[in-house]
Amino acid sequence: MSTDSPASHVHTRDTPAGDWLDAFPLGNGRLGAMVFGDPVRERVSLNDGTAWSGGVDSEARQRAISADDARSALAGARAALLAGSFDEATACVQRLQSDYSQSYLPFGDLLLDVTHSGPTSDYRRSLWLRDASVVVSYAVGSSRVTRRSFVSAPDQAFVLSLSVDGDETVDVSVRLDSPLAVLGRGFGWATVRLPSDAAPPHEPDLPSPVYDARPSVRGALVARWEHDGTDRSADGVMRATGVRRLLLVVTTATTFTAIGQPPSGSEETALAAATVTADAALAVGAGELFDRHRAEHRRLYDRAALSFAGGDDRTSLIAYLFHFGRYLLISSSRPGGLPATLQGLWNESMRPPWSANYTVNINTQMNYWAAETANLAECAGPLFDLVSAMRTSGERTARHLYDARGWCAHHNTDAWAYTSPAGRRRGDPSWAFWPLAGVWLCRHLVEHVRFGADRAFAADVAWPVVTSAAEFLLDWLVEGPDGSLSLSPSTSPENHFAVGGESYAVDGTSTVDLTLTRELFSSVGELAGLLGASSEPIVASAAAALDRLPALPVGADGRVQEWLVDRSLPEPHHRHVSHLYAVFPGDDTSPRFAAAAARSLDARGDDSTGWSLAWKLALRARLRQPERLPALIDLALRPAGVRSAGEQGGLYPNRFSAHPPFQIDGNLGFTAAVAEFVVQSHAAVIDLLPAVPTDWPAGRLHGLVARPGVVVDVEWDSRQRLVAARLSAARAVAVEARWQDSSVRVDLDAGGEVHLAPGADARSLVVRANGATAR
Q1: Is residue 614 helix, strand or coil?
Q2: Which H helix or E strand runs over 176?
Q3: N or C: which terminal CB in the chain sees fewer CB atoms within 10 Å?
Q4: What is the Rg, in whole angstroms, of the alpha carbon atoms belonging to the chain?
Q5: What is the CATH code for 64-97+357-605?
Q6: Tens-place pLDDT, residues 161-192
Q7: What does the record list as coiled-coil region(s) (predicted)?
Q8: How far apart are CA 117 and CA 171, in angstroms?
Q9: Does 686-774 carry CATH code 1.20.58.2050?
Q10: Number of Cα atoms under 13 Å in the Cβ half of residue 605
Q11: Is 501 exposed, middle or buried (0-12, 13-18, 19+ CB in 10 A)?
Q12: What whole-number distance in Å separates Cα of residue 329 and Cα of residue 635?
C-alpha cells in the first residue's frame, strides 16, 4: 500500500534564503510573492501578473518594414533558397524583423523588520504545498515566534501573520518599496509606473528601462495591519512595539485591463482599488483568511497526488516535484489572469532573461502540458485568452508581412499580444524567425476540446482561432513543380544546419513546420466534424492541402531529419528536439516513426537544460522506454547552484528548475512527463502504466485525466505491474482501457465509476463492479 509522505508536499530549510533562488514562491494567479524568511530583516519580493512594460502600441511603434518591402523580402528569401543561397535567404528574413517584445517586471518589495530581545535559534522555514503557505518558525529564549505567509485567491491579498508563544514580545516595522518609478508614497501605500519600454538583456546596446511620454501601466501597493502592540508609526513607516499577535495584508492593483487592450485609469484609481481590497481582507481576520485561502487552493491541489510505498529521499523528491509543478501552475495561472511566463508569476529583475516573456517556440506551451492531464484544466484559461488576443494582432502581422489571410505569430509574445518576428533586423533567424508559433498554440485549444471542453468552447474559442491559423498556412504554403506543397522559408526553432562549413538556420520545410501543418489541417477536420461544420470551405481546402504535404522525413541513418532535406547538424546535442514534436506533444507513435525518434533521441544525448530534460522524459514515455527514464530523472533532480551556467538542468535550492537560468517550464514539464509515465490517452485508448520508470517502487497516482475527460486513479506494485485502477467521469462516455496487451471496453455513466484490475492470469485486464468480475 502506498503512503502519502509529508516530504512529498513540504520543503523545509534550516536557514533563511540568501538568494532569490532559495526563497519560497507563493501566488494566486495574479499576485505573487517570494518569501525569504529572514527572522530579523524579512524581504518579500512582490509581483503583479499585469506588471508589463510598454503598451498596446509598442509593437506598431517598432515595426520598421513597409508591407511592399516585406513582400519583396519574402520573395527574395524563397528565390534564394531555390538557388541554394543561404546567406541571401538569411539576409532577406532579417529584413522582416521588428525589435522585441515587452518585459514582465517586478512590482515591489515588502520589507519587514523584527526586533527581538535576544538572539534567535532553532530556525526552520517550510513551503507547505497543500496549504500554499510559507511558515517561518524560530526560538527567542524560551519563546517561539511563528510567521505564516500566503497569497489568497478569494481575498486577493498577500497575508502574513505573526504570533509569539511565550513571554517574548517583538517590535515590528513595515515598509513598501519598488524598483519601478515611484510616483507617490504614504503611510502603508505607494504608487508606481511601469516603463514605457524595456529591452531584453540580449540587446545590451539599448537602454532599459525607459520612462518617457508614451503611455504605460500605472499601479499601487497597499499595506494594512492590525496587532496587539503599541502603534509607533511615523514618517510613512508602519511601526509597532510590544507585539505578540500581528496580521498584515498587502494588495496590489494596476491599470491593466486585458491582454492586447489599452490600460484604463490612473495610479489614483489603482490605489483606490488596492485600498478597498486591503481593507476588506483585513476585516476578514487571520483565521478566516487562511481557511478561505486553503479551501480554495485545496479544491484544485487535492485533485491529484503521487505516493510511493516505502521509497527513499529520491522518490520523495520525485513526488514533491510532481506536486510542485501542479502547485506552481495553480499559483501562477488562474482564470481571469495572465498566463504563466518563462518564470511563472515570479521575477525580481528589471532586465530578466529573455524579458521573462512568453517564448512560444516551446516554453509557454510546455508550461501548460500538464494542465489537462494533471487535472488543472481551468488553469489553462489564461493561455486561451492570450491565444485569442494573438489571433487579432497576428492577423495584422500576417497581412502586413506576408500578404496572407489568417493569423500567425513568431517566437515571442507578451501581455500586449506581440506577434512580429523579433531581432532588430540582425537577429539570428534560428530564434528570430518562425511564423508557426501560433499553429503550435492551436494544439492547446484542440486538446482542451479532446479532454472534454463543452461545445461552446469548441465553437466560440477553438474554431475561429484554428481555422484562421489554417488560412494563414494555406497562403504560406508553396507549390512545387510536382504539385506537392512545402513551407518556405522555414526554421527549426533555435537550431542550425551546416552547408559548406557554414552554419545556417533558414531552409525549406523543417520537420517541425511540416508536422505542425499536418496536425493543424487534421484538427480543422476534427473540429468541423464535432461542430457540424464539414461543409465550410476551409475544411475542404485544409483536407486537400493535407493530401499534398510530404510525409515526415526519416534519413538514411534511421533518424528523424531536422529538415525535409537531410542536413548536417553542427550542434548534434542541441537542447531543442522540435523535429520529434510528432511523438510528443503530438501523437504519432507509429512503429516506423517511433523507431526513428528513439534513434534521434539517442543521438541527441540525455543531458541538457531543465526544460529539455522534461521534454525528453515525455518523449521516452511516449516511446515506451521506461528503462531510459531513471537516468533522465537523475539529471533533473541534481542540485544547481544559484550562479550555475551552461546547459545543465537541475534544481535550485528552492527547487525551481534550472535552464540555467531559472525557467519554470522545467518544473511544469516534469509534472507533465510523470503523468505520461502513468497514463496515456492520445491514441484513442486509455493506456495504464505505459512507461513507469523501472526503478520505481510500488506506488499510486490518483486524479490524472485522460481523453475525453475521464479521471484515472492507478496503483502499481514494485515491478511496475498494475494492482488496480479506477475510472470515473462527470459525463457519460464510452472508452477503451488497456494494460499491456489486454484491453476492455468501459461504459461510464455520468458521475459513475468503474474499477479495473488484472485478471487471474495476471496478464489480462478485467472490470470489477459490485464485487463481480466481467470481461
Answers
A1: helix
A2: strand 170-177
A3: N
A4: 27
A5: 1.50.10.10
A6: 999 999 999 999 999 999 999 999 999 999 99
A7: none
A8: 9
A9: no
A10: 11
A11: exposed
A12: 22
